[in-house]
Design a protein that fits this description.
Largest sheet: 7 strands, mixed
Number of helices: 4
Radius of gyration: 15 Å
Strand order of the largest sheet: 1-2-7-6-5-3-4
Helix content: 10-25%
Distance between the termini: 25 Å
Shape: globular
Number of strands: 7
Amino acid sequence: GASATAADILGRSPDGVFVSNGPGDPAAVPQVARTVKDLLGKKPLFGICLGHQILSLAVGARTYKLKFGHRGANQPVLNGVTGRVEITSQNHDYIVDPDSLDRVEVTHVNLNDGTLEGFRCLDVAAFGIQYHPEAGPGPHDSHYLFERFADMIDENRS
């Protein structure tokens, strides 16, 4: 749960840590961002939506509220790594400020408004996606993200 500490999580010996989605302002749960910061470099991390925002706070970024949130199951996102456009499902009001990110690669950008939709950390096994890949509106556009997380876990087994 949200009150778990890094020690609690690591005590369960997970292969990786999934920072899940949820409602609201990521700045309202600073203890979760501190926990995620304490997990960076210890276990592979994958954050989606609110989890993506919390991961960004853990690496020192800022978030802000959009004037109009992203809603719908047809949001086009450019995967800058592959050059492909993915159709995504989104339901959020907050976004990561890309100018506040350091030591990361921006991997995904919203084609409607140019906002950041995904990044990967350059010095630890962690990445985040702003949209909901589990919703599958593509319907297979986002499966590779879960495969990437599984591969990251395999590469980082101790």
